């Protein structure tokens, strides 16, 4: 390569880098402005688009256990840690978290302060939009990938998010253009670094899509005795293949996955409904309160009674602050 060509390439790279920095800074500014004006007491800023929200936290958070639906989260400031099964991801400003399947996660905002809050842009993935885009796009391979991953946020994704946030306080334009911008965001995700994982979600014969069908059954029937044969049949796999692919994708066995679903629902009922520990244990499918208490403590670090008391005390302290 001659010196002229090298110089031209260097100029292009510099321009691309400057463009990315400019978009990233503008995205943080408009997200901060919107989130600060609309955030509720839980750090959540809803928007007129149901699938889109902004998050703002002014201090590190406690561990949050949840079943996370498919989404992409662009971190704009601060840092976060997310664990799924045996995998832990730590990421911060300029990076994006992708989750393509309903999976149990443990998350924690690790870097945030009043002077420099944690900000992120979150969009739930729409399988209908993904399938529709794939039907119109040139065929791209659906390479097996993990349901949770972290990558640098690409400029095109950041630009689409920036345009969308700028319209959130303008009812007329957002009503006409909001869906188009959400569709555009899905497109850039499909053709970018996250593409393999998202394409696998939209290809009906992929291993990820088949396991997702089994996960959906588990989510609906987690209180019932586990029948792995039923899950394997729903996924169109032999028992051995199902076990292999389920663990490869989720890092959990079907039994471990069901256990986490039961314990997460139990914690929700104890916190939100004030239910008794024994009735909660039986209600989520346990036959022994002793076993429930032991497994709850193993997952959440404390027995149910103490765990719920501390969670409520922490919530109250946040309300006071």
Search tags:
disordered C terminus, single chain, 321 residues, Jelly Rolls, 12 helices, 3 domains, globular, Arc Repressor Mutant, subunit A
Describe the structure.
By secondary structure, the protein is an alpha+beta fold. The protein folds into 3 domains: 3-202, Jelly Rolls (Sandwich); 204-247; 253-321, Homeodomain-like (Arc Repressor Mutant, subunit A). Helices cover 55% and strands 18% of the residues. It is built from 12 helices and 10 strands. The strands form 2 sheets. A 6-stranded antiparallel β-sheet has the order 1-2-9-4-7-10, covered by helices on one side. A 4-stranded antiparallel β-sheet has the order 3-8-5-6. Strand 1 (44-46) and strand 2 (52-57) form a beta hairpin. Helix 5 (195-202) packs across helix 6 (207-220) and helix 7 crosses helix 8. The radius of gyration is 22 Å and the shape is globular. Residues 316-321 have low confidence and may be disordered.
């Amino acid at each position: 390569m001659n010196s002229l060509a090298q110089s031209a390439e260097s100029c292009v790279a510099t321009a691309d880098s400057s463009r990315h920095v400019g978009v990233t800074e503008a995205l943080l500014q408009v997200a901060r402005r919107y989130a600060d004006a609309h955030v509720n007491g839980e750090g959540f800023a809803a928007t007129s688009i149901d699938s889109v929200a902004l998050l703002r936290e002014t201090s590190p958070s406690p561990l949050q256990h949840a079943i996370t639906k498919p989404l992409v989260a662009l971190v704009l400031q601060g840092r976060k840690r997310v664990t799924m099964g045996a995998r832990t991801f730590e990421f911060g400003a300029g990076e994006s978290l992708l989750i393509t399947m309903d999976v149990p996660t443990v998350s924690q905002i690790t870097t945030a302060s009043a002077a420099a809050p944690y900000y992120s842009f979150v969009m739930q993935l729409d399988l209908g939009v993904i399938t529709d885009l794939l039907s119109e796009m040139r065929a791209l391979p659906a390479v097996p990938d993990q349901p949770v991953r972290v990558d640098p946020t690409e400029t095109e994704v950041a630009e689409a998010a920036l345009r969308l946030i700028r319209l959130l306080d303008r009812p007329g334009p957002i009503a006409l253009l909001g869906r188009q911008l959400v569709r555009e965001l899905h497109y850039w995700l499909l053709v970018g670094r996250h593409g393999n994982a998202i394409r696998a979600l939209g290809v009906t014969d992929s291993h990820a899509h088949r396991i997702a069908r089994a996960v959906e059954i588990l989510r609906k029937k987690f209180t019932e005795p586990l029948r792995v044969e039923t899950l394997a049949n729903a996924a169109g796999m032999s028992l051995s293949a199902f076990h292999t692919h389920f663990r490869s994708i989720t890092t959990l066995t079907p039994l471990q996955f069901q256990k986490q679903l039961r314990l997460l629902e139990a914690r929700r009922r104890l916190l939100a409904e004030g239910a008794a520990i024994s009735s909660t244990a039986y209600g989520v499918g346990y036959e022994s309160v002793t076993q429930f208490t032991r497994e709850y403590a193993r997952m959440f670090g404390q027995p149910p009674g103490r765990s719920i008391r501390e969670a409520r005390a922490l919530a109250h302290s946040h309300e006071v602050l």
